Every structure is written in structure tokens, then in C-alpha cells.
Amino acid sequence: MNTKHIQTFLMVSAAFFAMSGPIRANSANALANAVTRTTQAAATTAAVDQRRKSEDTEQRG
User: Fold this and answer.
1) DSSP 8-state symbol, 21
2) SS3 of the chain: helix, strand, coil, percent, to 5
3) Distance in angstroms (rounded) separating the CA atoms of residues 39 and 60
4) What is the pLDDT along the chain (61 residues), one digit of tens a residue?
């Protein structure tokens, strides 16, 4: 599965759960933190995948 699709799914899921959960003063901050962490994790995963592909190509060639 494409990492961009995973990132989008996680961001939409975080937004949905934040909207459907109880309303608190810190909920906006919690949502922002969750989206930031999700984005960082997706970016890290994408970078690792790209590096692995690059290493596989170098080993084959």
C-alpha cells in the first residue's frame, strides 16, 4: 500500500476520533499533536522504504 494513502487514512482517522470524542479544552492540542506524530511517523516510514528500495537496487545492479 502506498505510504501516502496510509498517511491520509491516519490523519482522517485522527480527525474523526477527535471530533467524535468528548469536548475538552485540550482536545485541539491533542488533535494537533496526534496529526504531527502521524505525519512524522509516515515521513519516517516513507524515508525508510525509499532507502530500502535504493539499497535493493544497488545490490541487484
Assistant:
1) S
2) 85, 0, 15
3) 32
4) 688 888 888 888 888 887 776 666 566 677 778 778 877 777 787 788 888 887 777 777 6
Residue 17 is which amino acid? F
28 phi and psi, to 5 degrees?
Answer: -65, -40
CA atoms within 13 A on the CB side of 58: 6
DSSP secondary structure string, the chain? --HHHHHHHHHHHHHHHHHHS---TTHHHHHHHHHHHHHHHHHHHHHHHHHHHHHHHHHH-
Residue corresponding to grid cell 525508510: 48
